[in-house]
Amino acid sequence: xxxxxxxxxxxxxxxxxxxxxxxxxxxxxxxxxxxxxxxxxxxxxxxxxxxxxxxxxxxxxxxxxxxxxxxxxxxxxxxxxxxxxxxxxxxxxxxxxxxxxxxxxxxxxxxxxxxxxxxxxxxxxxxxxxxxxxxxxxxxxxxxxxxxxxxxxxxxxxxxxxxxxxxxxxxxxxxxxxxxxxxxxxxxxxxxxxxxxxxxxxxxxxxxxx
Length: 210
Hints:
It is found in: Secreted, Extracellular space, Apoplast. This is Dirigent protein. The chain is of the alpha+beta class. The protein contains one helix and nine strands, in the order αβββββββββ. The protein is about 25% helix and about 40% strand. It has an eight-stranded antiparallel beta barrel with strand order 1-3-4-5-6-7-8-9.
C-alpha cells in the first residue's frame, strides 16, 4: 500500500513538473531566439562590413609591370644570402649540390649597379631542388619600400632553372596594394661570379591586382 501510494505521489509530481516545464517552453524559445537573432545580426553586420572593406568589389582589376634588379650577395663581410643547410656529403646528384639551402634578404634596385637606388627587399629562401640539373625552389616575398607600392609585397613560389637565360615563376599572392595578386615573374641573370656565387638578376614582373 505504501509503495503504491509513493508511486502515485511520484507520478503526480513528475506530471506537474512536466506541465510546468511545458508552460515555460515558449518563453525559453522566445528568449533563445532573441539572443540567437541578436548574435547573428551583430556577427552578420561585422562580416558584411569587414568584407566590404577588405574586398574591393567595385574596383577594376588591372595589370602592372614592375622592373627591378635583384642582388644576391654571398661573399664579403655583409652577405645578403647565407647558407643554412648543406648538401649531403654523399650526394649522388649530378651537380653534387642537391639540398643546399640559402636564406636571403637581398636588395632590389632600380638599376643594375649595386649603388643604384634600393626600392625593396627580396626576403625568403631558395634551395637546390633538382638532382639532375641546377634548379632552385624559390620561396620569397618582394617587399617594396619606395614609391607607390611602399609597404606592399608580392609572393613567389616556383621553380627557377638558373642556367636558363630567362626563367618564369608564378606570383601566388600579395599584400597591401597587391591583395589578391596573381601573375608571373621573368628572371634573367645579368651578372654572375662563379667563385663567390654572387649574382645580379633582372626581374620583369607582370601582376594582376586591384
